What we know:
It holds the Pfam family Abhydrolase_6. It is built from nine helices and nine strands.
Amino acid sequence: xxSTFVLVHGAFQGKWxxxxxxxxxxxxxxxxxxxxxxGHGRDDFPQSKVTLKSYTDxxxxxxxxxxxxxxxxxxxxxxxIMSQAAEYRPHKIKKLIFLAAMVPKNxxxxxxxxxxxxHALPLPxxxxxxxxxLEIDASAxxxxxxxxxxxxxxxxxxxxxxxQALEPFVTPVQLTDNKFNxxxxxxxxxxxxxxxxxxxQRELQNKSSFEKIYKIPSDHSPFFSYPDELVxxxxxxx
Length: 238
């Protein structure tokens, strides 16, 4: 079945992460919508003013413009954002796909969840002087994000990484059983992930009901390191 995919990128990144799989999905006949979250990629919203609401408002606007219910794919932090948006627009969503993504419970923050992963490599980040941003040392992210990627893909991605607003990390999500929890969910594991360890990905899956679990033997960036496998899974889900 041909579907519309809305792809939600993670922290420090932008819609550029989907550059390989976007045309591949389109060649299979699917419609693909990618976008930069506020303050990411080419979006010029001031990073210091970004909130979780900024993120969810942007995603909800995209959902509102969709003609038919979509398949939402959230990578990493994108899992939090799409979960909150799903609470606001459940009727616009056909399925939720968590790609090496955070799975929240009602009232949890991203920081709450991050601190529970005992096996992930600590990210090379520091808090900005004004306490509003996580500043990343992009040159030190190979093992965290791109361990299985080519040197070319890694270098290109590292040049595009951006600092990350802190406020969305400390804002709790508000979820209910009859909206977010009622939607069909699928998890795609990344087995060699150093940013969200595979053990922790499996702990996260216990927070909700998942129709199916897929596995990719990738790092945290399967859209670069294993694009064929990722597209095959997404096409099967559609």
